[in-house]
Amino acid sequence: MLDPKRVILNLIQNLLISFRPYLRLVEKQVQGDIIIQIDILEKVYIISLNFKSGILVVKLPTILIGKKGEDTAEKYLKKQGYRILGKNYKSPSGEIDIIALDKGTLVFIEVKTRRSDEFGPPEISVTSTKRQKIIKSAFHFLSKKRIKDTPCRFDIVSITGSPDQKEKVVKIIKDAFEIERW
Questions:
Q1: What is the pTM of this model?
Q2: Whether 157 contacts 73, CB under 8 Å
Q3: 157 DSSP β-pair partners
Q4: Strands 105-114 and 152-160
Q5: Burial class (CB within 10 angstroms; exposed 0-12, middle 13-18, buried 19+) of 108
Q6: Domain 63-177 falls in which CATH fold?
Q7: Less Cβ around it within 10 Å: N or C end of the chain?
Q8: What ranges do the domains of the chain cover?
């Protein structure tokens, strides 16, 4: 007879295999519960599977969903003819998810992923504050690389769908925002 705890644990481990480049799994049993420790990009997250209550809630850390979204966005952008120059560019002001070239234009891309659009599409979470951080990071990139007289724009890649769904809704919002007055 199959052990239901083992079946569920195997299911979760198989789901997490697609995130293998980003994590390391450690499984423990504590007082009948199965604890899965996930080390993701130098941060530790815990998923506890409690079988005593008969309710099993498993939620993936949002950092995994974001990283998986960035991978999906990169593949999609390449199919659309973008040439990826860099990912996760960090500056003192923040981070730019993807920097790419699109027909001679340097594009700074913010990737937003949501499991569903129940609370609105992913792109609405790019707030004014986030836009300003991206713009400052773009200026930092241009200055550091000594890039001048090159057309630039800011795009958003919006992805709706959970990481385990094969079909996700991916859209590129070109010229999603502009540099506002300082």
A1: 0.70
A2: yes
A3: 111, 172
A4: parallel
A5: buried
A6: Trna Endonuclease; Chain: A, domain 1 (3.40.1350)
A7: N
A8: 4-59, 63-177
